[in-house]
Write the structure tokens for this entry.
Amino acid sequence: MKLSRLFPLLTLIAVPALAGPIAPSTHDDPRGIIPVTRPPVSAAQAPCGELPGRPLSLPDLADIALCRNPATSVSWASVRSAAAQIGVAKSATLPSASLSIGPTLSSSKSFQDTGFIDSNGNLVAGSSVLTQVNSSARLAVNYLLFDGGGRRAQIDAATAQQRAALAQYADAAQGVVLNVVTAYNSLNANRAVETANIANVAFAHQSRDLAAARQRAGVATGADRLQAETSLSQAELTLIQTRGAVATAAAQLAVAAGLPPTQHLDLAPAPPLPTRGL
């Protein structure tokens, strides 16, 4: 694939990631700050981790790789964490409230001049006990009117950290997509060589048969027939080697997409190369 066709595909990863929050957040993000889904490459993206039930195009393989690659998962988690820090920084601009509620128990004992004399002639003083139960509630609301730009600076710093995390995700995603594109082109190139070698084997068969017929007719020697058979054997050997290269390239493409190397990939036909300007 030419570089002029590779860069637009990588741009599909970089530009949406650097644009900021991408999708609505879940119920644990009421302010809608944390992005939920990653930017896809293909328009008809299947659920992450599933293979679409159709022949796979290059954008489909890129989406599968982005979903399954650990590097993109780690960098995307960093993006979400950085976005959450923006919410933490913005919370400093909100008022704070504190509420305290608690019961109080008090007991007092007083002695009064209400004594009496018991049967032994002793004076016993009188007393009274007063017990009170009270409850109290306190609500305090605080709001910082001016802090010299400290809160704004914290928000700007958190926003810059999020953009840095988005850039790191874009870099990781571009590396993953580049590996997929390289493996995809390698597989297509080896398949094209295989097709050419199949034609070479067919031509070598015809040459061998023609040499044998010429020998039977007496217009060719045995050396001509042996040379044709040697060419046929060499063409068959080259075809076997090419088919091994095709199998290796298919396994490398599956691994680049985050799939097992034995995974069979039903690929869609590659788009035709542009002919304008050639």
User: Anything to note?
Assistant: The longest helix spans residues 150-216. The chain has two domains: 3-93+148-256, 96-142.
